[in-house]
């Protein structure tokens, strides 16, 4: 009989919490950059892309299952 070990509950909760924080930070970065495109200048695409990458990474952390 094999025994399946699972991750500690605290680790799972922190992973989900950090994922939510990353989603919020990425969304705020994207929103602020999008609403102030003129003042950011030529680097606006860089900040928009960085915001989206942070949101996607946060979503992956939030959705991922810890076995």
Write the layout of secondary structure elements.
Layout: H1 9-35, H2 37-40, H3 44-63
Describe this structure in words.
This protein is mainly alpha-helical and 67 residues long. Helix content is 76%, strand content 0%. The longest helix has 27 residues, at 9-35. The radius of gyration is 17 Å and the shape is rod-shaped. The model has no long low-confidence stretch (mean pLDDT 88).
Summarize the structure.
The protein has 67 residues and is mainly α. It is built from three helices and no strands.
Approximately how much helix is present in the residues?
A: over 70%
Major sheet, described briefly? none
What is the tally of helical segments?
Answer: 3
Shape: rod-shaped
Low-confidence region ranges = none
Taken in chain order, the helices and strands follow as HHH
Percentage beta strand: under 5%
User: Radius of gyration, rounded?
Assistant: 17 Å
Instruction: Report the end-to-end length measured between terminal Cα atoms.
Output: 18 Å
Structural class: mainly alpha
Average pLDDT reading: 88
DSSP strand tally = 0
